[in-house]
Design brief:
This protein is mainly α and about 120 residues long. About 80% of the residues lie in helices and about 0% in strands. It is globular.
């Protein structure tokens, strides 16, 4: 079996994750609220939670976890959107955006943990 360089795994996963983030954000984003950012952060947290909890092969963790999830989720866009909402005097939306991103991402990781550790029932 041919070993793939870690940088290639991360880079390929990153390219796929970035494209997926772009297309998904375009489909679900709304002018009044950055729903695209919320969606990719929560979904990415769920997938990263599954990959981490499952203790998958290190190559798969590099490809999916570091590469794809790393570029799929977005802290910088999340922060920028929160600041932009605040500057536009939409303070409650800025607070909601930050709160729902954090709570949703943590809940997604909890759901991933629950699904992995509790399923299938014994």
């Amino acid at each position: 079996m041919v070993a793939i360089e870690p940088a290639h795994l991360v880079g390929t996963g990153g390219a796929i994750g970035a494209l997926c983030r772009y297309y998904l954000s375009q489909r679900v984003d709304r002018p009044a609220f950055p729903l695209g950012i919320l969606t990719v952060n929560v979904l990415g947290s769920f997938v990263l939670g599954l990959v981490t909890i499952a203790s998958l092969d290190s190559d798969l963790v590099l490809f999916v976890g570091v590469g794809a999830c790393g570029s799929f989720t977005t802290f910088s866009s999340f922060s920028f959107a929160a600041v932009r909402l605040w500057e536009d005097d939409r303070h409650w939306r800025a607070i909601a955006h930050a709160s729902v991103n954090l709570a949703g991402s943590l809940a997604a990781i909890g759901l991933a943990w629950g699904l992995f550790t509790l399923w299938p029932p014994s």
